[in-house]
Design brief:
This protein has helices at 2-14, 20-40, 52-64, 69-88, 115-122, 130-145, 149-153, 183-200, 220-234, 242-255, 260-267, 272-275, 277-293; strands at 160-161, 166-170, 176-180. By secondary structure, it is mostly helical. The chain has a 3-stranded antiparallel β-sheet with strand order 1-2-3. A hairpin with a 4-residue loop joins β1 and β2 (166-170). The protein is elongated.
Length: 297
């Protein structure tokens, strides 16, 4: 049974172009399902023997174990995708998940920073030092474009058109998109390139834009650590993650009148419903302004 899971994961990578982190999430969900089947029904030896009742039982077990509603929904989504693959490849004749609906989840409003808090966070970088200048360029570019952390760290030098003010990045599913870059971000990235990167780089063949102290491409873990340090130093009493800057980018655009479709395009959201969550935040902002400013509020 594990061999089919491996084939499915290979399909996700090669055919669908999903990122390694996304593939890992599918792997965890399906391995957890396999482990559950092995413990509760050792007689099952093939995927044809797994029934709809087994799947529902697995989801119920997760909830009994205290799993979050979103975790259970994601597990079902992974299982449904796997079975669609199995039927598509003629490994199974019947899909037991056909009429199992993935429950809709009330999405939590993302936490965002105010414009003043973004400024305070970014200003923690000591730009007189090579690494501090690099960090300033990374944070400016991330907030200025709304890139995901994986997109930011995979940028190559040639991906940014400094003259036209655009960059090219590969998003989820390896879909390419063009994102405008503001003058502030361009200025800081250019300073980093001329003053810092040339001190960090070890190989003339290395074209990745942001490098660590050893001259190698910056990792997600490295970026998280850097951002956490600046967040603590800033004294801002909010949880700050790379996605916080992305959320702040989208929210500040909408608060200042940006078109929702344009924001969707810049964020690389396949479905506009994903972008619409930010409209709830901007409505909350408008209510706050109203209560603060209207004499009858």
């Amino acid at each position: 049974m594990e061999s089919y899971v491996a084939a499915f994961l290979e399909y996700l990578g090669l055919e669908k172009g999903l990122a390694a982190n996304t593939q890992a999430a599918y792997r965890r969900d399906l391995n957890k399902f396999l482990t559950y089947l092995g413990k509760t029904n050792s007689a099952i030896l093939s995927w044809e023997e797994v029934s709809k009742r087994d799947i529902i039982s697995f989801l119920a077990w997760q909830m009994d174990e205290g799993a979050a509603y979103s975790t259970v929904a994601r597990s079902l989504s992974s299982i449904k995708s796997f079975y669609k693959f199995m039927v598509m490849e003629d490994h199974l004749a019947i899909n037991p998940t056909t009429d199992l609906e993935t429950p809709k989840i009330n999405r939590k409003l993302p936490r965002v920073l105010s414009i003043e808090e973004v400024d305070k966070l970014i200003e923690q970088c000591n730009v007189m030092r090579p690494l501090g200048l690099r960090d300033r360029a990374m944070l400016e570019l991330m907030y200025g474009t709304g890139l995901r952390v994986s997109e930011l760290l995979s940028l190559q030098i040639d991906d940014i058109n400094f003259t036209a003010g655009f960059l090219r990045c590969l998003g989820k599913g390896r879909k390419e998109r063009i994102v405008p870059v503001n003058n502030s971000s361009i200025t800081w990235v250019q300073r980093y390139l001329t003053r810092s990167r040339r001190e960090l780089v070890r190989s003339q063949h290395e074209r990745t834009l942001f490098l660590n102290a050893h001259g190698r491409p910056m990792t997600r873990q490295g970026f998280f650590k850097i951002l956490s340090g600046y967040a603590e130093k800033s004294g801002i009493q909010k949880e700050i993650t790379p996605h916080t800057l992305r959320h702040s980018f989208a929210t500040h655009l909408l608060e200042n009148g940006a078109d929702l479709r344009a924001v969707q395009e810049m964020l690389g959201h396949a479905d506009i419903s994903t972008t619409q969550i930010y409209t709830h935040i901007t409505r909350s902002h408008l209510r706050e302004v109203y209560h603060q400013c209207h004499p009858r509020a």
